[in-house]
Amino acid sequence: LQDSPLSKQLQEAWEETLHEAVDYVQESDIKSAEKLLKKFQEIPSRTHDINEFQGVITHFERFKTAVRHENYALAYSMAEHVPMLKMTEVYKDMEDIWDNVFFKAQTYLITEQTHKLFKILEPFSRVTAKLCFIQVLLHQPEKFLEFIHHINAQSYDKIFSIAKQYPCLKEIQSYKKVLESSEDLFKKFREHIFSRDYDLAELEHEAL
Questions:
Q1: Dihedral of the CA atoms 29, 31, 33, 36 (nearest 10)?
Q2: Which of 51, 69, 73, 197 is buried most, with the most CB atoms less than 10 Å from its CB?
Q3: Cβ of 192: how many Cβ atoms within 10 Å?
Q4: What does pTM read for this prediction?
Q5: Which of 63, 111, 107 is nearest to 121 (CA)?
């Protein structure tokens, strides 16, 4: 039943409604948000979600204020306790700020301007979700540069070894591209094995 066309339609309708409700909260139109969700109040499987949405209504303004005042530790903590806050534009804007900070920090590291690292990373220094990134950049810069070098060289075994030590590095876009590339190579390797094209399979294996 969960995989039926009707079930999929209901899921899509719920997701669309939820996004609309979040938009209403961001516009301070709480009544419209609550009215939208009433359509799903009689569905038992949505009771938890609707209760969780109350957290968005309760905490959104404080969350927005925290982001505006660069109190990122509080803002990220609130988003962990009320995950639906991650659906807001405010959360996306905060993540964009972090992405920009992290990119600049990488640039400073690569161009040997390490004296600028602490200042640019400081606003996120108490954000638990970002500590791994910050610790690697500040305290293990040679490891980060080694990681980037292996990515550029497509040294998969060394890339995955460092990523295992520092799991947060798996969130870097260049790592995600490497992962996609390695998955494609593995898929081709399997295809060549199944088709008994062992020479090509060996080439793909060497690339891995």
A1: -140
A2: 73
A3: 18
A4: 0.79
A5: 107
